[in-house]
Amino acid sequence: MLETEILKKGDDSGNGTLIKYTSSTGAVIKAIGVPQSWESTLGPTWCYVIEGDDLTLVDPGCYGSLTYLEQGLGALGRSLTDVARIVVSHGHMDHDGSCPPVIRKSGAELWAHEIYGFMLQADRGDVERGWRREVQGFKDFENSETMTRVMEHRELNRDLVLDHPVTDELQAGGLTFYYTPGHSPDELCILFDQVLFSGDHILPLITPHPSVAMSYNSFKKSLPPAYSSSNDIYGLKALLTSLKRMALLEGDITVLPAHRAFHRGQFNPIGVSRATEIMEHHRNRCYELTQVMGAGPKDLVTITREYFSDREVEAQNFFLAFTEVMAHIELMQEAGDISTNSGTAGGRLWSNGLGPDVPINWNGTDQFSVFIDDL
Ligand SMILES: [Zn+2]
């Protein structure tokens, strides 16, 4: 367990809050609540600061929120120019968004998983938009302010140079890196002393959004050769495999996640066993989806709308809900619980055998459960 001290209070959701964590071995980590630069209920990205001879930042935070990071460091008696190393948990804009200006001001080294470096250069916009165009209801998402920011952020990050490409189980600079793909293909968990910085891989209160396995086929060409033979990095199967791995880490480890570590005035301490809870959440979601599919074949959009019928799932949320459902259907498909009738797809068939008009038929089995146990 970590000792906690609030150094500075921020707003209700934690934005602008400064926290000091001390481990039982005396290691000190400070955390800055860096706000998102768009309207969000997520709360801040926690940027973790390790002060040694020089300064390490884990996830400098969202694109467009540099001033908050700067103010936070200032309150700790530091400045951006002190930063010697940035470690990025994964390449989503709420985590690595401030990398370009911080590196410009400090000359800091950039550390991230080796796939992060490849994805900086990949032409993601076109690849991702290709299949999205076919789904009714995604238009609002494509035109949203968030998407505009994502595209701007990607353009700016293209100039980044990954100084230290990290691979699984690397130990360097006092840190041990674990490669935990699934939410993102480049996700890392980073062990320092008895603390695991878990990025978005393990979160309290909320669960990380799984990527879809289908993306592997789209991005295969952009990946290092070691990852090009089979898909172990995209989709729910990859996420669950990575969760299982972290749940097995031994020792008195406290998890410091990138979100919700402190939320609405409360600390939410978690250990690696939270990874098992998240896994069970997804197993349960598969069971819930079988209930929706039990009434007969339905396409993915219908399943999504029925499954999330009690929630507002328009625009951005509909995209997240749809891909969340797709990730589960893909896993059940691989486990042998799902069959599809692609004859009615009208040519619009995706590389995972699904498509906007493809009816999905549940076979009445729950082999996904054993499939998850065997991962
Ligand atoms: Zn995040």
Model description:
The protein is α+β, with helices and mostly antiparallel strands and 375 residues long. It folds into two domains: 3-274, Ribonuclease Z/Hydroxyacylglutathione hydrolase-like (Metallo-beta-lactamase, Chain A, 4-Layer Sandwich), CATH 3.60.15.10; 281-373, Orthogonal Bundle (Arc Repressor Mutant, subunit A), CATH 1.10.10. Helix content is 34%, strand content 19%. It is built from 13 helices and 17 strands. The chain has helices at 66-75, 93-96, 99-106, 114-121, 124-132, 139-142, 145-157, 215-219, 236-247, 274-293, 300-307, 315-335, 367-373, and strands spanning 3-8, 18-22, 28-34, 45-51, 55-58, 83-87, 109-113, 164-166, 171-172, 175-179, 188-192, 195-199, 254-257, 262-263, 266-267, 338-340, 360-362. It has an eight-stranded mixed beta sheet. It is globular and about 65 Å long. It starts with a strand and ends with a helix. The mean pLDDT is 92. Bound molecules: zinc ion (ZN).
